[in-house]
Structures are given as C-alpha cells and as structure tokens.
Amino acid sequence: MTTTQSRLPAGPFPRHRAGLRSVAVFSQKGGSGKSTVAIHLAVMASRGHRVLLVDADPQGTVAAWGASRTRPAPMIVRADPTNLVEVITSAQRENFEIVVVDCPPHAVAGTAALLRLVDHVITPVQPTMPDIAATKSTVAMVTAAGKPISFVINRAPPRAAEVVQAREALSPLGPVSPITLGDRRAYARALTDNLAVSECARGDDKAVAEVLRYWIWLDGHFLEVDTWQRRRAA
Ligand SMILES: Nc1ncnc2c1ncn2[C@@H]1O[C@H](COP(=O)(O)OP(=O)(O)O)[C@@H](O)[C@H]1O
Ligand SMILES: [Mg+2]
Residue 43, CB half-sphere, CA atoms under 13 Å: how many? Predict the structure, then answer.
C-alpha cells in the first residue's frame, strides 16, 4: 500500500520542552482503546519529536503492529515493569523526547510501579456506562502513583448526548480533552496495514484531524501541568 503524510499540515509542531517526557496510556478497562490511542499519538508526535513507543502489554498489540512496519518512526520496544526504568533511562541517553507506554489491560502486578515511572497518564474512555464506571478505580491507581491524569473520550458516536454526559461525569475526576476521538473504522483499518490513520494514502481525514488536534491539546496540557508542578515545588 502506498502511503503519504502530505494530508497533514507541514510543521511547525509544538516543541514546548527540552528533555524527555513520558506518558502512559492506561485504563483499568480492557478494550477502551489504549493501544489505538498509544499508536496514533506516537505516530503523530513523531512528526516533530524523537518518539519511543513502548509496548508494556503482554498481549503485544503494539509490538505486533510494529513488527511488519517499514516506517522508521516511532521506534518501538517491548518492556515490562521490571525493565521499564532501564528503557526510559536509555531513551533519555539516546535523546528521545517522548516516550509513550501502552499499558496492560488490567492492573497486573507491576502496574503501580510502571505508573510511578512516567510523567503523565492518559486514559481513553468510551462514552458508555461500564467505561465511565471503571474510571474511578483507574483514577485511584494513578492518584496513588502521584501522577497527573487526563481523559480522552474515544469511539464517540457523532452528536450523541452520551458524549456530553461522559464529559460531565469525567470532569470532576480530571481534565478531559476537548477533542474527542470518533468511532471510526479507519483506526482499525490503519492498524491492520501496520500504519496510523495519518499514514494512509486513502485514509479518513476526520480521523487524521482529530488525532492531530488531540496531540496539540495534549502537548499544551503537559506544559500546563509541568508549569503547575514547578510552581508548587518552588
Ligand atoms: N476510535 C475508535 N473507533 C473505532 N474503533 C476503535 C476506536 N478505538 C479503538 N477501537 C477498536 O476497539 C478495539 C479495542 O481497541 P484497543 O486499542 O485494542 O483497546 P485496548 O488496548 O484498550 O484493549 C479494537 O478493535 C479497536 O480497533
Ligand atoms: Mg491494548
């Protein structure tokens, strides 16, 4: 399949901070879209940064996606909570700027340790009752690890009241991305071709646009959290 990135605007991409930032995509709820979000964020961020995508899920979705890829970025590596420190340390040494960790589906042993190692946690939430109900225990784990969390509503149906309700239910628990990711077959199709939506020649422009806008929001959000933490430490 021929691929192109020309449907994306040419830079400049946000480059808020020098040094390494690490983000875990984590949820207690299986199937919420962790791997899909981790892959799409990592590919989008690769347009402006050196990105390492870490597959910390024994299911190995990201590693399987990356195995037959011909694109050089993002770099993909498998890890588990026992060697994640080593992976992040060597990413720092090798001048990576962003590490995205795709986490296991449930809080397996070592998940708490993994969460303590990253700077930020993002949680995809589908706008359904079971997903929303599961966020409380996700937030509890992330809070216990002392890390900031933000949510992104994933697989959102168009113009649905559920999305508004999900946003209202999540807002008291943490920042919710104003950009939602739609329920689009393009995400699964791209992954089947070992690509992200932004890399498909005949992809879904709406999917590409929402991933781009989500990444830009997230990058700004990271900056706000960093500034707040620095102020608190001063
Ligand atoms: N935004 C989306 N639109 C449509 N399907 C999606 C979307 N996000 C995830 N999916 C699908 O939902 C299923 C679970 O997604 P996945 O990323 O593997 O979740 P997790 O890693 O949390 O288990 C997959 O079949 C995936 O293709
Ligand atoms: Mg997964």
Answer: 26
Ligand 1 pocket residue status of 60, Cβ below 6 Å: no
End-to-end CA, the chain: 52
Q: How far is the CA of 177 from the centre of ligand 1 (A)?
A: 18
Name the nearest CA neighbour of 141 among 178, 167, 110, 180. 110
CATH of domain 21-233: 3.40.50.300
pLDDT tens track for 177-219: 999 999 999 999 999 999 999 999 887 999 999 999 999 999 9
Q: Where are the domains of the chain?
A: 21-233
Q: Which residues pair with 23 in a beta bridge?
A: 100, 120
Index of the ligand 1 atom closest to the CA of residue 29: 22
The DSSP symbol for 232 reads H
Q: Is the CB of 111 under 6 A from ligand 1?
A: no
> Separation of 227 CA from ligand 1 center, angstroms?
32
Beta strands across the sheet bearing 149-153: 75-78, 51-55, 98-102, 21-25, 120-125, 149-153
**Ligand 1: residue whose CA is nearest its atom 10:** 33
Q: What confidence score (pLDDT) does residue 3 get?
A: 41
